[in-house]
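Sample intake sheet
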Amino acid sequence: MFSSNSKKKVLGALSGILANILLGLSSVFWTFLGAVNTFTLLGYRVYFSVVAALLVVCASGQLRELFASLNVRQLFVHAMAAILIAVNWGVFIWASIHGRVLESSVGYLIAPIMTIVIGVVVYKESLSAFRAIAVVAMLIGVSGLLIFSPGLDVRVYLAIGLSWGGYCSLRKLTSLNVFSGLLLESIVLAFMFTPILLFSDLSLDLPDGLGLLRTAIIFSCGLVSIIPLALFSFSSSRISMTSLGLLQFVLPITQFIVATVVYEQTVSVELGVVLLVVFAGLLLTVLEPIIRTLLSSQKRRQDGT
């Protein structure tokens, strides 16, 4: 039987995998809304995220707990996280609409490396030999990709990679529960967006002839935002930063599949090699317990003989 701690880690890992798959597939969601301005989509995403998170927090009776546990440090952490997720959302939506999904994929290759490095350097987490080999291989692969793939838009993958990596690291610092933290971040973003809407030419007006389906998709963008982030936040509270970073490599692999199958983007040899290295690293990480068990059994047999 699994111990309670093992169950917690398994649930955290499964939540992290599902969150990354959903985030990777969400670029298809935004493709249907290419006729709408990126800022407008970001605005709807922010405001409907507030509504979705508020409904969950109120329904679960956590609103009073949120106000009781809120302090200056928590507010600062979630305000910084909100800024980073706004950058990530905005660039990701733009890249999805304009067919720059490969750049998104590269950005999400950078993010987990950043998360793992922070886990080792800041949180003093240790890496097993298997994970160290996987991380070094991935780091070399991504570095080679950045050097030998000048055709990719550097602004897109750096903005996505750094903002998502920073967000993941900040979410590890909070003691708020999943949806309370998401609600706080969404409210901060809403306060940031409202003055921009009031004192600029930007608006939330939707273009004419958008159609019922696309309008319905826009009104569901709060759930599209909240569900993966909730799964990710649940995962980050149950597994280590290094484990979280390694699981994040699921996202760029999903994005790679979307870019080639849905967007029909051409994949360079360099990117293909890097993704194979990443997949091998992930496979090594997943199979680590089995490999350790086999090696341990073999050693015991040798000692017995």
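Comment: The two ends are 31 Å apart (CA to CA). The chain has 13 helices and no strands.
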